[in-house]
Design goal:
By secondary structure, the protein is mostly beta strands. It is built from one helix and ten strands. A hairpin with an 8-residue loop joins strand 2 and strand 3. The structure holds zinc ion. Keywords: Guanine-nucleotide releasing factor, Protein transport, Transport.
């Protein structure tokens, strides 16, 4: 069973191990979509500018959207993703989406930094 971010009590403690990595598999937040975006223990919790995710068009359910997502899972290599899709690029921000159902944006890649790939911690389901 996977759990939506908003159903997790104290997520910043529950989802992170002592090395700052994800303790659970990170899945697409869409109901019935079981696409794994990141395997457990592959991404590091970081803080970033959440305003970058404020796209005019989004397929992420409104119940998952927060005004300002500032916590993200970071990986430095695209190959670290289990599955991920790319959607539009606006300026230097390339938006990431679910590889199976295209739901997005769930995160972004900053094209000015080849090691900057982040997935919003709230736009995800978790499989412990
Ligand atoms: Zn999906």
């Amino acid at each position: 069973m996977s759990t939506l971010f908003k159903s997790i009590d104290k997520p910043l403690e529950t989802l992170v191990n002592e090395s700052g990595k994800n303790v659970a598999n990170i899945l697409c937040p869409k109901e019935n979509c079981q696409c794994i975006i990141l395997r457990k223990n592959t991404a590091t919790l970081v803080e970033r500018d959440g305003a970058k995710l404020a796209l005019p068009i989004t397929s992420v359910p409104a119940t998952l959207l927060k005004d300002n997502d500032t916590h993200f899972w970071h990986v430095s290599n695209m190959m670290d993703f289990e599955n991920v899709g790319f959607s539009t690029t606006v300026g230097t921000t390339k938006y990431l989406s679910c590889a199976d159902c295209d739901l997005g944006p769930i995160g972004y890649h900053d094209t000015t930094d080849p090691k900057e790939f982040v997935i919003s911690i709230s736009r995800a389901k978790y499989n412990f």
